[in-house]
Amino acid sequence: MRKIVISSLVAMMALTMSAQTDVSLFWRSDSVQISEIITPEGDQYRKVGHHGPAIENNYMGLRIYFNHSGSIDVYSKQKPQLELASALWYPTAKMQAEGYGCDEYKVGSTVGLGGYNLWDGKEVLKLTATEGREARVKKIKNGAVAEMLAKGVPYKNKKVDILIRITMRDGEREAIVEAFCKKGGKVQFVTGVNFHPGKELFTDEQGHIATWGRHPADVSKNPINIGGGMVYKPGTLEQKKITKNAVLLISKPCKHYKTKIVSAGEREADLNNAEKFIQYVKNLKY
């Protein structure tokens, strides 16, 4: 019996040490980790930890804002490790000096890196949830998932339910980001990658978008260069638009849309400059 117990402990320790993805969701009022939040209110941005459900792999963290924006924000890392449980998205200066990452990706009014809005044929519509919002996180075999469901979103004289799902797989640097219309028929999704003045921008007709540069961070005195990249399937698009602050993808009418996204920062060992990052994104497969 003793041998069995010891073997089990060793196995559990090995599993914990090899974990390459994690999730986090909690109310700020008690900081207790939970698997879901269901609320009739569409905007709980200031009451939910991380401002929404969060997920990470060894290379980046992502969070879906718990409001009407449909935006995805990025947490950049210096070295491959899991940090959400201890940093809670906002590491101290001491923690950053010891190798933790930072929150310096600026989303602003955009979809951020791979977030989703809707297109009504003339303009972009935010995911305004009139019938409540639901957030969920979970560990799955060889990975993790974070989701946000906006219920009762006004769209073309009807209401639709839109789910955003981020999936990360152990051992993979990219994240899969999907949008589903769970109720209300086909819609046109809007996604893309945001950028700021002075950032390098690359996009092609084979389904790649890459940006690199400093974001106008409001939480750091020493903002770093950050890369944001995406690969998508060109045949799924009605149009691609480059605005003053984002490359936007407008889908053909559908009930499901999918992209892959990736991020890196200048403090890490591998993809730490524009040339390396853009080349990496160019080689990504959908």
Structural summary, described in words:
The longest helix is centred in the first third of the chain and has 17 residues. The N terminus is likely disordered. The chain has a single domain, classed as Beta-galactosidase, Chain A, domain 5 (Distorted Sandwich), CATH 2.70.98. The strands form three sheets. Strands 2-8-9-10-11-18-15-14-13 form a nine-stranded antiparallel sheet, with helices on one face. A five-stranded antiparallel sheet has the order 7-6-12-17-16, with no helix packed on it. A four-stranded antiparallel sheet has the order 1-3-4-5, with no helix packed on it. By secondary structure, it is mostly beta strands. The protein is globular, with a radius of gyration of 19 Å.
Q: Helical stretch count?
A: 4
Oligomer: single chain
**Alpha-beta classification:** mainly beta
Strand content: 35-45%
Query: Helix fraction?
Result: 10-25%
- Which stretches are poorly predicted, pLDDT < 50 over at least 5 residues? 1-17
- Report the CATH architecture: Distorted Sandwich
| Sheet with most strands: strand arrangement | 2-8-9-10-11-18-15-14-13
Largest sheet: 9 strands, antiparallel
Number of domains: 1
Q: Could you give the count of β-strands? A: 18
> Could you give the order of the helices and strands?
HEEEEEHHEEEEEEEEEEEEEH
**Alpha-carbon distance between the termini?**
49 Å
